[in-house]
Amino acid sequence: MATSDAEVDVVIVGGGFAGVIAARELSARGRSAVLVEARDRLGGRTYTLDHDGHAMELGGTWVHPLQPHVWSEVDRYGVETETFPVLEGLRQAVVSDGRVVDLSDDDVARAYDAFDQFNAPAATLFPEPFLETLGPDPQGLGKRSLREHLETLQVAPELRDWVEGMCSLIAFGPLDQSGATEVFRTYALAGYSTAQDMAALSATKLVKGTRELIHCIAGQATLADIRLNSPVRRVIQTDEGVRVELESGEAVSARTALIALPMNVLNSVEFEPGLSEIKRTASADRHAGAGMKCYVRVKGDIGNVSIVAPESQAVNYVVTYDHGPEGSWLMVFAAIPKKLQMTKFEDVQGMQQALQPLLPGVEVESIVGWDWSNDPLALGTWCIYRPGQLAKVLPDLRTTEGRLFFAGADSASTWRGFIDGAIESGYRSARDIDDYLTAGGTSANS
Ligand SMILES: Cc1cc2nc3c(=O)[nH]c(=O)nc-3n(C[C@H](O)[C@H](O)[C@H](O)COP(=O)(O)OP(=O)(O)OC[C@H]3O[C@@H](n4cnc5c(N)ncnc54)[C@H](O)[C@@H]3O)c2cc1C
Q1: How do residues 248-294 score in pLDDT, each as one tens digit?
Q2: pLDDT in tens, 44-59
């Protein structure tokens, strides 16, 4: 096996937002780091692809001032933002009872009221959502799936279908496998308001893509040696330090390690000694987020549309990305990809069929996307806990084990599952590692 590097303070495993923020924050504290990332790029589950003249986000896209950690980074680097979807002339609709029902502004207001009604438990379950304390739960709502909770909602059918479609979009996995708490939590974080929730989840994106932001952050990780194409195979912890072995046979030694991997892939790295049972079980069970997001090129000018559909449909949300007489690009979300009858993105027929209930007559030309659930470095989309998983896995998922620290959007306190949560966790872990090294470990720079 190749020799190790000179010892550094921290080896960071994973170059998503959590790992890269930690690298910058550690640099600011005078701590040296080696960041090892398996892919040939930074960003992990955010991925800006240049295609057909657009900076398309194949993963994480939307950010918002209600998400304090990511917004402070946007402000810090002066990264340009824009409203998306464009609201001017936006046609809103829901698929209900097999037909497309157009929604007037009043209808949208009624749909928002229905979503408020759905989220009524948020006030008692998440009285202080930024503090991660769960309120009293005499009815056991914390263990309820989104499907079970939807069955208690009594509103007009098209409003119910709109709420169901929104739940499918937020969960991005099967409703019976997704915890209702996950939807309550974002609603609470957005000030217990549907309008604010919708804005926080899907109203503002970065003009040049998340790629620009992560490169700004990485540019200030001055004491970090960032190594791409460096998949980690094994992490060995001893009394003296941590040795991280790569698939290539190389190794990096450091006083501590920050594991900034998705929860679903934790088990694909070998840890000696093994990780806590809760971490291993969480990784084996996976979170429920397993949907398919892609960009679909269609013939003609589709106009500016935003159409929601319930779980029975293969596509649960479609929104115009760009349109004109030469053709349109749609952003398409499917919470249960196997319903799409597509085995690969070239299968335009499967997508064309799946889109008919939302956009009758639409003709698909091409598809661009990334299959996150079958990507071995992600094994899922954004983190949505299964019913009851929240209470079982947090806070253990981010609990330090000896010299190993843990970060990632999947175990964040507040906007868990979001870019904001990844950044929050990166700030926290850098501070914790610095405190640990100050208290007992010896800094490589001291
Ligand atoms: C389709 C999709 C849409 C989304 N939309 C939004 C949105 O609109 N807004 C929002 O805020 N969030 C969104 N998210 C969620 C957000 O992108 C993620 O929660 C966040 O980016 C995760 O950051 P992270 O650093 O915790 O993990 P990751 O980004 O997953 O980073 C982990 C890194 O570890 C690397 N890695 C894995 N295994 C190894 C190994 N063995 N060795 C070395 N490296 C390894 C991975 O390649 C990856 O780079 C979306 C996610 C997806 C997939």
Answers
A1: 999 999 999 999 999 999 999 999 999 999 999 999 999 999 999 99
A2: 999 999 999 999 999 9
In this structure, the answer to whether residues 127 and 244 fall within a common structural domain is no
Ligand 1 contact, 369 CB (< 6 A):
no
The atom number, within ligand 1, closest to the CA of 380 reads 53
Query: Which of 263, 374, 382, 397 to mutate to test ligand 1, by most ligand atoms within 8 A of the CB atom?
Result: 382
Q: Are residues 231 and 155 in the same domain?
A: no
Residue 260: CB within 6 Å of ligand 1?
yes
Cα(177) to centroid(ligand 1), Å: 21
Rounded Cα gap, residues 334 and 295, in angstroms: 11
In a domain, 264, yes or no: yes
Q: How far is the CA of 286 from the centre of ligand 1 (A)?
A: 14
Residues 130 and 15 in one domain: no
209's CB contacts (< 8 A; 6+ apart) are: 48, 55, 56, 57
Token representation of residue 56: 């398309």
Instruction: Report the predicted TM-score, pTM, of the whole model to 2 decimal places.
Output: 0.97
Which of 58, 37, 62 has the alpha carbon at shortest distance from 49? 58
> Given the CA of residue 202, which atom of ligand 1 is nearest to it?
8
| Of 132, 161, 193, the domain-final residue | 193
Structural domain of 112 = 108-193
Ligand 1 pocket check for 170: Cβ under 6 Å = no
User: Where among 193, 223, 254 does a domain terminate?
Assistant: 193
* Residue 128 resides in a domain: yes
The domain total for the chain is: 2
pLDDT of residue 317: 98
Query: What count of other Cβ atoms lies within 10 Å of the Cβ of residue 310?
Result: 24
Cα-based distances in Å from 278 to 394, 399, 411: 9, 10, 13
Verify whether ligand 1 is closer than 6 Å to residue 269 (CB atom): yes
Whether residues 280 and 396 fall in one domain = yes
